[in-house]
Amino acid sequence: MGESKNMDEIPLPALFDQAKKIHSMATESSCDQETLRKGIEALRRCDEMVSRLGLFSSNESKDDVSTTNLKYLLVPFYLGELTEKVAQDDRLQGIKVSQNQLKEFISICEALELVPEEEIETSVYGSADSAAARRAKKIARFKRQRAAEAKLQEIKERKERRGRSLRAAALSTPVESQEEDAVDDDDGEEEREAWLTSISLAICKAFDLLEMLKKEEEMLLAVKERQSKEGDNELAREILDERTKRAETWHRNAAGQAPFLKPAQPITCATFAQDVIEGRAKASDVHEHKHKPLIFGPASLIGGRLTSERERIAAQVFQPSHRMPTMSIEEAGLQEMEMMNKWQERNAKLMQEAHSSWHNDGPPKQGSDDEDDDAAQEKARAWDDWKDDHPRGAGNKKLTPCG
C-alpha cells in the first residue's frame, strides 16, 4: 500500500525513467521476479497517467506528437515484455495479457503512421501466408531491426563526441547565448530521432514476440486439450489399477502359501487364468481346456446330424478353404509339456547309467596283461645290455682331432 502511495506521488517522467531502467535490466541480464513486478506496477501507473492526460490521439500523426511525449509510446511495449517474463501459475493467462499489451502498442503506432506498410499488409492479425512470404517478411524485419540498432549506436556516439567537444570548448572560450540555442536545437532533433528509432526497433521486437507467444499459446492449448482427454480416461485407469492391485495381492498370497501347500497343476488356458486372477473362478475348479471347433454350413448341419445323403454331400461342400485345427493351443501346449517331461526323464536315466559304477569299471581284464608285462621287461633288459656294449660317443672317435 505504501509503495502504490509513493508511486502516486512520483511524476510521470521520473516514473517512466524508473520503469525503463528495470526494463533494461531485465533485457540485458536476468532479473528477479520481485523487481519485475515492481517494473510492471510502475508501467501500469505510467499507462494510467498517459491515458488520463490524453497525450496521444487517433487524429494525430507522428509529426504532431512532441519530442517529450514520444517516449511514452513505449509504455505498452515495455509492459508486454515484462509481463511475458513474469512467472505465473497460469501461463496461458499471462500470454494473453502480454499479447493484448503488444497489440495495443502496435495499434497506437499504426494510428500514428509509425508501422511500415509491409508489416501492416502482412501483420499477425491477417490470414496465413506462404512459407516464402513469411521468410521474406522476417528477413526484412531483421534488416530494419539491425538498421535501427546501428542508428541508435551512431546517435549515442555522436552525442558523446559532441559532449566532449562542448566541454573542451567551454574550458577554452566562453560560449555565447546564440551558440547555446543552436546546441539545444541540435540536441532536440537528435533526441527526437533517437526516440523514433527506438520506437521502430520496438515495433520489430513486438511483432517477433507476438509470433513467438502465438506459437506458445497453440502448444499450451494442445497440451491442455490432451490433459482434458486424459481426464476422461481417469476412471478407466483407476479400474486398471484396481485390477493390477488385486492380481498382485493374489500372487503375493499364493507365494506366501506355496511352501505349505501341495503344488497345483499348471494353468495353461489364458482365459481360465484371467478368470482366476480376477476372482471369477478358483484354481481348484475343474477345467478341461477344450474349445468347441467352429462349424461352417447351413443351420441343419450345426447339430451334427447327417440323416440323408443330401446333407452328407452338403457337409463336404460347405467347408473352409484351409485345414481346420484338430486341437486347441492349450491342448498342443499340454502335449509338448508331456513330451518334454518324458525327454527329461530319459536324459536323467541315461546320465544316471553313465555315472554308475558298472559303467566306469567296464568288462573284466583278461590274462594277456601278464604276457605284455614280461615282454616289456625283456625289451628293457635288451636295451640296457646294448647301452653297456656301446658307451655314449663311442662311434665318434675318428671325428675328433686327436682320434
From TrEMBL:
GO terms for cellular component: cytosol. Residues 177-190 have a biased composition (Acidic residues). Residues 376-392 have a biased composition (Basic and acidic residues). It holds the Pfam family TAP42. GO terms for molecular function: kinase binding; protein phosphatase 2A binding. InterPro entries: TAP42/TAP46-like_sf, TAP46-like. One of its GO terms (biological process) is response to abscisic acid. Residues 161-190, 350-403 are annotated as: Disordered. Gene3D superfamilies: TAP42-like family. Belongs to the IGBP1/TAP42 family. This is PP2A regulatory subunit TAP46.
